[in-house]
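Hi X.,

You mentioned you wanted examples for the new student's onboarding notes, showing what a folding record looks like when two proteins sit in one file. Here is a clean example. The first protein comes first, with its sequence line followed by its structure tokens.
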Amino acid sequence: MGREKMIVSHKILYGSTAMLIAMAAVPAAAQTDAAAPAAEENDGGDGVIVVTAQRREEALQDVPIAVSAFQGEQLQSTGIDGLRQLSQMAPSLVVPEGGSQSVPYIRGVGSRNITPGNESSAAVYIDGVYQTDKTGILLQTFPEVESIQVLRGPQGTLFGRNATSGAILISTKKPSQDFGGMVEGTFGTDDRGARAYITTGLGENLAFSVSGFYRYETPYITNRNPSNGIGKGTGEEETYGFRANLLFESGDFSAQLQGNYINGYTTPIMAMQPAPGSSLSVGEAVSGVDIRNPKRAYYGEVPPEVRYDSWGMSLHLDYDLGDVAISSTSAYTRSGSGVQLDLDLSPAPVFWFDTDLKGRTWQQELLVSSKGSSPFQWLLGGFYINYRDGYTQLDQYVGLPVPTKLQPHAIPQRLLELSALGLGPTSGLAYIDLSTFVRIESVGLFGEASYEFGQGTKITAGLRYTDETATLDEDNGKVTYVPDGTGGVIAIPQTIGDVCTADPLCDGLSTGFSELTYRLVLDHKFSDDFLVYASYNRGFKSGVYNISSLSARATEPETIDAFEVGLKSQLFDRKLTLNLAGYYYKYDNLQVPVVDPATNTQISINAAKATISGLEAEMSFRPDDRLTLNTSFSTYFKSEYDSFPNCEIYRPAGVGLALATNADCSGEDLPVTPNIMASVSANYKLPLGAAGELELAGLLSYTDKFDHATHGFYPAGVDAGGNPYPAGEGRAPVQKALTTLNLSATFRPLKDNFYVTVWGRDLLNQGDRVFRNMQTTTFGYSTALGRGITGGVTIGFKFGS
């Protein structure tokens, strides 16, 4: 860990310790009378925020877990319209974007290698349904989102597998018997869109709702290569979706049937930085074109595009037996996507690919839990998931000075083009058509119990056993094309079939993983408004097959042991809420992404051990019904590899190429761990008399610089062309520090239900400082700039109750 991070962290630690000592003396002076009314009844007090972090509805301030909870209207007013922007408000949450997918990092724990079957380290749920696919989550901007909860820290007991960093719970509105809804349209400098929601009763026990959205964002990276057929440029995005809900309620029983569909199209924004020790990228070296000038330009040979569609259905059953509640969630989803990218980003036919991915998921969960006010509370549950995920991908190799993989559509034409450039191999061009799927079947049994004894002291213990099997389904083929001497080519097909069984390091076509995870919590309420807790949690992320590699070798599960202490308080008649959390992680067998030199695709390996520790703070101040102030802060005391002797870095290989090589990265910082994250948001409602009301909102957030990938040092050597190179650092460009400002003003007439919002996002114009995509390959570092400052007007109308 760098000296700068240690000095800053120690200062923060001393200040935080002093704050905790001071806060410990507050309860007696600040607590309200035990008979005081609930928070929502206090003048100027905030309403009780209800969360489901412990799989039951509880007040946020009573839950001994670090949780950030956001209401739908709060997110909209501050310019947060998706998971990507949520990190501007939630402490320790970073959502780096990589091509078509973005996956969350929470407290430095995450995974950038989201290949089929390799899921995120943060479990994402929408209305209780676990999301195995992360592309669709990013595209969802449904208008009926009611709340989003970010649970920080391993949730291995109640949420199970693949929740080593935490969980993100997205909840939507239930249908209502009362007729109502909304419709709105947005017209911006760079986008336009519409959203609508309607709900109504269909009888005494039935209610129905339907919603939809459409959104279009214009390109903002200029196309400099007219022959690729893109048109104006890249960065374009178009998405739409629908959701329908049918709710039946009768006495103590309810059933909710949901269906949804989403479709998206985007042209990813990408740029290439030279490999370590090189002044040019491989695309620049081959094409002679400076693809980095200007910054916002695209020179690629083929149009980059990502197409996505998904549909799903779920059934939620709830039965209240008085002292016991039973809940069941059943869900089925199907998804498909196509990705086409030019990874050298130059006009030369060097390296591009076209991939189709398909997936389907069945899942079932059953919960049985106690109710009432007994000091002993319990919960039992079971979870089953069966999903199949995979892709068909076309790989090509070409004889550059260093063997390099290509993946084109028009195979014969590519061979002729490369030969004309003097790059084609003399013995032919080999293509591998990969068709690989992985099927995962997982069963989890879990339980948790808590007992309150004495005056406000409670102990909670939980246990979960997970057993799963991963099965490979491979059907691979190879075709070699050679020149026929007359300007054409000859195709020589060859069946490869399953290559895993021929690899001595492959674990076979089926492998299993099982794990025990557990939780122990001790919390104490000094008063109704002051809670302290200490907890231990163990989480694990499943092992996975590297199906993007020909060998499809399996990666072992990773585990994390987390120790946490926290404080939750409400002061000054509950007008001020202050929550603190400190944590210490021992992280074992980390799954980290590296590039397989045989296929030039990203795979996962296990990376020994790491230690992470830090502090988080959240504060909310609501002196009256007009003004609300929210702040958040997080920092890392330590985030480094204790042992990582086989990390992968890149050294010069000639002609703009880089070659993966091993290094000892022990003691280096983990990626995606900005030393400081902070945000301040404000909302003020200004009465305008008979004219109506003006609501002003703003969000200012800061994220410190961080690395996107592990970095290390390589010794001096000689590249493949015989050229010497000096010792250096194999390090991707650092994500620069970002300060983001969003502002909005909403006018609501007193007697009408329509509203007009004028808004601006990224008003400090930080687009050139954002690396929306950062990945390391043989060809260099692929990056992309953010959109920058945008603004617009949203006009909406609410009707009914």
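Then the second protein repeats the pattern, sequence line and then tokens:
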Amino acid sequence: MMVVSLSFSIIVVCTCLSKLIHLYTYVGTVPHVALILFLPSVLVPDILVICLSRLFLSRKRTTITYISRLLGCTFSLILLVATAFHATFYYETGTEVTWTNAQRYVRDKDGIRLLLSGSNSAIVCVVLILGISWFSQTYLYQYAGRSLSMLTAPLFRALRIWNMCKRRRGCHSVEDAYDYQSFINSQTGNSHGKVYLDLPPQANTGSSRRYPKILALAIFLYLALTASLRPSSPYSQMSASLPITMLQMIGLHTESQANRYTFSRNPWPFPQLIHTTNWEKPKGYFKGWAPGDNSILAQMYRDRLPTWLPEAPPAGFCKWLSSNHSNQVDREVGDGGGTGRICHETKVDGTFYNPVNDPLRITNQDEEILDILSDSFRNGTVKIKHIALIMLESTREELFPLQQGSDIHNIILDSYKGRKDGDGVNALLSQLTPVAEKITGKAGCWKRTNGSDLAKVPIPEWNDTTQDGYGGINVIGGFTAASLSFKSLAATHCGVWPMPVDSFQESEAQSYQPCISQILHLFNQNKGAKTASNDFLEQKWLTAFFQSITDKYDRQDIFNNEMGFEEIVAKDVLEQRAKARSGLEEINYFGYPETTLKTHVRELIEKVQREKKRMFFSHFTSTTHHPWGLPRDSKKIEYVNTQGNMGWHRDFNSYLNTVRFQDAWLGELLQLFELHGIANETLVVLVGDHGQAFKQDITTRTGTYKNGHVSNFRVPITFRHPHIPRVQYEANATSISILPTILDLLINTGSLNRKDMAVASDLLHDYEGQSLIRPYKSSRNGRRAWNLGVINSGASMLSVTSADAPWRLVIPLDGASQWRFTDLKNDPLELEPLEKWSMEQLVGDVRNLYGEEASQWVVQADAVAQWWAWERKRLWGYKSTK
């Protein structure tokens, strides 16, 4: 029966360990006095789990107890694995995993590989739990049995007395009487028919019998009182017990409240801002702006059928196929590139995006193009034949490039205080991102302590021939639309906001706006079956998506196919085409380094040139993703001090090494464009999918999961072209502005034929993002230019900023986190966030510390975010599975 006691001991140890981790995450968020006061009520679910487990793990030999023991032992094994995962995840990230999110990993082959990346820590955790459980099993099993007997003895004594009274009245025979005492003895392991609570005869007085009853009653009343009086947040979340929350993953109700959505009226919270006096009339391609139920302009847009729309449009343009224009609901559409698609019902039932009726939308198309750009555009020196859209995995703006004197540079220097010469450290750091310096036009400004310049860093990977003063537009202050890679991918490629729901549910729907590749397919379809032309304006586009890792994780491949890419190269294709699999070196749980793509990129360029086509090349880097592995032949450098008590910098140092690797790869990629003679006619757009927080940023947690820190949202956004004048564009913009900016550039550089230009000019006015070649509008007629960010895993938290204010708000959609307010102007690193468990508390504290204007901004930000969250689900046609 040792297995029984060991199983029970495992349950106790796992329950206690998981609870300690759970409570530790809340220690700094509640007053210590309140924590002590409400702690007993918080522990009740865990005590109940332990008591029930003890009853299930009885040593009595009956059919029922055999079954209960089997269930109890199985439960202990499941709980052991879950606790190891829970503890390891917390150790790696400083955040607890949500079990409903865990399904995303468990049900995905590549997700399981991600989980196994922490297997070493998990094994250590399992060994520790088993060791503690082994040595404590006898004591825990017997003590729990005695305690359970003491707790239940009064109840069973009352039942026995009640039964005896009934027998005296003749209600039952003696043979039918139920031996309650034998039952509890069997469940607690007492086979001698003795109650652990029994007292010696001399002490068994009326007074002594009352004390346990009074104590039990007092405990019950205290628990009931504190449970009813304690605030809902965070004590309801603190009461969660791991064995119970695990059931969320395997039970019927797997969806969080924030994930749920039902189609219902979602009124705009500030009707005064969309009053008819603020409506804007149509002009040219601008369809006007007139949000409201009785808006004629909004209805006109809804009923319109663009003259340029083919009878069988490519995927992405299905929103115009309403019942007024087609008798079909789900129907095939024109491919425009050989990839047939289906128009889903969600896009023809009236739930599509209407820019005229969008109260959030602010356009800057009525502004002139920036003066510094207009001359180059007018004289025809800028031609865009090809487009390369490069998404940089986990890339932070302050590391693209790293600059001397920046906050992150100072953090690195501080790690070496008294250990290493500053000039030596700077000499190393100056070689970290030289390609990024060239791309963005932001010099690293590397100098010695005596003020002299450090030697210029050679870039062997890339011979850049761009003239001084040229190179393109670099955005300063850019934010991502999501700290989840694939949601960010959708925002970047389709110019849309992602949904605040867990995982990549967008892959199961159609984007509510045409993606860039779909627009290019429409251009192809408009050209018909023309023969290849020497005039690039008449050439068709070839769309391709390249990454060196798997595209099967979280249904990325489904979304890539939905966007209509004609050529897709990912891990499986690399393995199929490799002459020898041994030549492919896996560097992380997702796949290979980007350098394995080099031959495939070269072949793509040669194919485009041979077939006289234009290229849209989308590429997603990956080496900078956790666990920051490098190929064996890459030298690992110590950029940050990791010696001794500075060992906690190791992850950050590994990340910096992958940043250097990625920088060199970008140089190789741009050199390929140079060697094939397409560099001067290729627009290269670079954007970070999201940032990456480390302990250097926020000591309590790392990574992006349920981490609203600003370092996860500041990303580089750059439009590089050798003939576009250099511009440092300062704006609190997001990655949804990339697609409209690309269209604006194609139009104004004369890089489209007349028919395509008319289509692009019309579509440009449909997107929510502003163009980044025109002055950015931070507000209009009292309306702010709001920027929303979905925080990994999707349904838990939202980040809110506005272009006209320095403040930032993180909203807990699931109620399991604190409201978080920061002032990015005075606290750009968010070292002193204001965090509260309720909106009311936060607004009051913001008013006291930052003033009335800031508190009003918080109220508005919350209202806009709540409206926005439901509106995204409507636009994506998202329907809860409940």
